[in-house]
Amino acid sequence: MTRLIIAAAALSFISFSAAQAQDFSAEQRAACKVDYDQFCKGTMPGGGRVLACLSKNNDKLSAACKKVVADASKK
Q1: What are the contacts of 48-53 at 24+ separation with CB within 8 A?
Q2: Could you read off the pLDDT of 48-59 as tens digits, one per residue?
Q3: Is the Cβ–Cβ distance between 20 and 47 less than 8 Å?
Q4: What is the pTM of this model?
Q5: Where are the domains of the chain?
Q6: CB-side neighbour CA atoms (13 Å) of 35
Q7: Inter-residue contact 67 to 38 (CB < 8 Å)
Q8: Which position among 5, 17, 51, 73 has the lowest Cβ density within 10 Å, counted as fewest Cβ atoms?
């Protein structure tokens, strides 16, 4: 029974993380890929962590990624 509860909780977490990762469109992810790889590579997607990492490094981001971060922060 305990294993079933743990498995259900893990599946819920994975599903939630995947949904959060889809907050960025393909174009937005492409605009920030180099910046993500350089500044946030170890950041696990989900829960706004990638956006927070990119925001923290905003002064170092490319112009295209800065726009993505600014637009996402308005939401």
Answers
A1: 48/20, 50/24, 51/23
A2: 999 999 999 999
A3: yes
A4: 0.68
A5: 2-74
A6: 25
A7: no
A8: 5
Q: Which residue has the tokens 């180099």?
A: 34
Question: Two tokens at 23?
Answer: 């907050």
Q: Which of 39, 33, 30 is nearest to 58 (CA)?
A: 39
For the chain, give percent helix, strand, coil, nearest 5: 75, 0, 25
Higher pLDDT, 19 or 24: 24
Task: Sort 64 into a burial class: Cβ within 10 Å, 0-12 / 13-18 / 19+.
Answer: middle
Percent of the chain with pLDDT over 90: 59
Tell me the residue type at 14.
Answer: I
Task: Please give the single-letter amino acid code of residue 41.
Answer: K
